[in-house]
Amino acid sequence: MTRTLSVIIPCYNERATIRTLVDAVLNCGVNPIEIVVVDDGSTDGTRDVLGSEIAPLVSKIVYHEKNQGKGAALRTGFKHATGDYVIVQDADLEYDPRELPLLMQPLIDGKADVVFGSRFMGGAPHRVLYYWHSLGNQFLTTLSNMFTNLNLTDMECCYKMFRREVIQEIALEENRFGFEPEVTAKIARRQLRIYEVGVSYSGRTYAEGKKIGWRDGFRAIYAILKYNIWHRRG
Predict the structure, then answer these.
(1) How many domains does the chain divide into?
(2) Rounded to two decimals, what is the model's pTM?
């Protein structure tokens, strides 16, 4: 049976990369594929590119009038997904869409309900960048694992693929990068079958447009505590 993959692309000020990314998704080797782009209030001309170049290539574009954050954009995208499986794909070219078939396989085989990508397992190449970012990611993953009792290696990885009914049943609240620990906590509580697949990573520098910062790290710690201890719903 052929399975459809819905690719949710949250997009904020990615004029330089969005066309290249969409082309890469279209040529990733998955067919049929549904692409839903959510523009989160871009102000750099991204919307012009979406209207003139991207609209004929994708299934749907949804526009937020004001910037609300990645988590808010993903909530919007998940609502519009109609495929059998749903994955998050950032618009910044840090993750390679050619690896989407690898992430799909445990779902297609009926082994998994959720598949996490991991930048820290397997032999896939990754760009060498910030030591403190790497240490921070490992700390957040370890802290999350302590509360969820999962043995994930990369909780913060963008690539998370779900059976559609799984992600659409989860009530998500975080507007920014707190989405990662929130969705992980709520998945763990449902005792779903989770797999990890090693993925490559071509990280950006701040000069190249990287947006996540130290404040988001503190928010992630708060989200881990909130959704595992204080606010166990969803």
Answers:
(1) 1
(2) 0.90
